[in-house]
Amino acid sequence: MANFKIGGFYRLKQESYMKNKLLLFFVLVFSTAALFASGGKDDNLVADAQGSASKKKKAAASTMTEEYMMPSSMPKRTVAGTLAVLDMLDYLEVDVVAIPNTNNPINPKYESKQRIGMPMTPDMERLKAAKPDFFITVNSLKTSLEPQVKTAGIETVFLKTDTYSNYLQAMEYLGKVYGKEKKASEYVDSIKKKIDEVLNKNQKKSPKVLIIFGTPSSMSIAGENSFTGSLVKVIGGKNIWTDTKIKGPYVPMNLELIKAENPDVILRLTHVKPEESSKMFKKEFENEFWSKLAAVKNGKVYDLDNTYFAVSGNIHIKEALDMLENMIYGK
Q1: Are 266 and 25 in contact (CB under 8 A)?
Q2: Structural domains of the chain in order of their starting residue, each with its CATH number
Q3: Count of CB atoms within 10 A of residue 234's CB?
Q4: Is 214 helix (H, G, I), strand (E, B) or coil?
Q5: Do residues 84 and 310 touch, judged by C-beta distance below 8 A?
Q6: What are phi and psi of 240, to 5 degrees?
Q7: What value, to the nearest 5°, has the Cα angle with vertex 204 and ends 202 and 209?
Q8: Residue range 44-70: mean pLDDT, rounded
Q9: pLDDT tens digits for 179-223?
């Protein structure tokens, strides 16, 4: 395997491999992304970008059918475990009795709500004090939180929001739980409509896309099983990382692959210390290696706003698709 030196990063050196694996483990544990995304499930949602528009429409019209536990009765005292969950409940007009701590701006109507601590490490005593009959959080926290909520006797659901399709299924599930099926369907249908529009306008295009996940000290490639990767796939973009043997959302940088594939579009995603990560990207892309790629030559390198492109799904999918359409295809 060749060695490439890119701005001080030796991603293909054998001795760096374990370091990359440890970094990826840290990122996945300390994010709301699912630790092991289910491979191939978005294949039911999008056809090959070279296929017919009718096939694409049919693919986009389906959703996943994984089952969630239904509470014995409609919850009266719901606690949202993450801001992404709170946004879903807010859209469905479901009241909550407690929310997670956050430094991000929230709707003023939630300012007076009881706080249960940070999403990854909620305070079980505060959570119990809220007297919830239903606690909703995300599946990436299931391993760490499930034993605690079981001990506390709190009825809990862990939503899968790691990919586009999983997020829509989670929205439909919440609609059923709270008798808000119409609102949930309106949301899901609006997303499907947007996808159909993008696919129909760009039937014969399949641009190659590289998604880079950056931290202040390293970079990795986001595959189709990442949230952003699933959005790119569902509107017909071709992710340059297609190794189906690796099911996780992120893999170590592979500069030989990037050089060989010569992506048409590069999307840069940050989550950990975004300002520092952005500075790293700027410095790194000053290197000659990147300047030779088609995406850089043609000005098709984009820094994604993590309000819309987080490591797991959020309520802003339609806006994210609008942005991706412009970035990948141009208008």
Answers
A1: no
A2: 14-61+199-328 (3.40.50.1980), 78-159 (3.40.50.1980)
A3: 26
A4: strand
A5: yes
A6: -70, -20
A7: 75
A8: 47
A9: 999 999 999 999 999 999 999 999 888 999 999 998 888 899 999
